[in-house]
Amino acid sequence: MHRGKGMKFVGDSRVPVGRKQNIPKDYSEYPGKTEAFWPNFLLKEWLVGSVFLIGFLCLTVAHPSPLERIADPTDTAYIPLPDWYFLFLYQLLKYSYASGPYTVIGALVMPGLAFGALLLAPFLDRGPERRPAKRPVATGLMLLAVSATVFLTWESVVTHDWEASKEQGKIVAEADIDTASEGYLVFKDKGCISCHGDNLQGIAGVGASLVDTGLTPEEVADIAKNGTGDMPPGMFKGTDEELQKLAEFISGVTSK
């Protein structure tokens, strides 16, 4: 402690003597360049935050999130797709060394090492330099992480079957089905339910929806016998009477 003219200067042991040049000057030496935290600075922060919040809300109104049909746990053909910020991990789990018996490696070990390295970067490189070239460890880890994330995300986007995803998540019309009718019993007994679902809603990648087809009984009967599109001919195996009941039933199925 040193005595001056009516003032006492106390040294802080936490500040090394050799690094006094790094101690910032007092704010009183910058007149006109300081402001009060409340309300000046905080008000500016609130205004900037409000602008971004309003912009985000406008974006969600102009481009709402796409909705899919209600989740069906019995649909084993459904392929889920995570949100965009998890696509890199989704792509990683497609590779042989990170899937199947090695899923733990792809889901836990590799991401754990990557994020652990990023967390340890400030402790691995504690140099005073601010230029990236002078901090090879931290810069290298960051470039590696960013490059891997961008590459895996891009690979996931370009290799995904977006048409199939759109089809499997499409909202289909629901209908009131008379499960006691003769036509529905034929539909169930002849195995049509395995491709078109118990409510005739269709199964993605297997069979189309039979709700609101707009077809006449004669057209339905012709398709059941001769097939159409992905449906091969000869799928229906029954009598003409059963075919007539089935055709009349399917033709009359309409949405709610």
Automatic annotation (TrEMBL):
Keyword Iron applies: yes
Keyword annotations from UniProtKB, A to Z: Electron transport, Heme, Iron, Membrane, Metal-binding, Transmembrane, Transmembrane helix, Transport
Keyword DNA repair assigned: no
Protein topology in the membrane: Multi-pass membrane protein
Domain of life: Bacteria
Transmembrane parts of this sequence: 46-63, 102-124, 136-154
Entries under Gene3D superfamilies matching the protein: Cytochrome Bc1 Complex, Chain C (1.20.810.10), Cytochrome c-like domain (1.10.760.10)
Function of the molecule: Component of the menaquinol:cytochrome c reductase complex.
Protein name, UniProt field: Menaquinol:cytochrome c reductase cytochrome c subunit
Species name: Fredinandcohnia quinoae
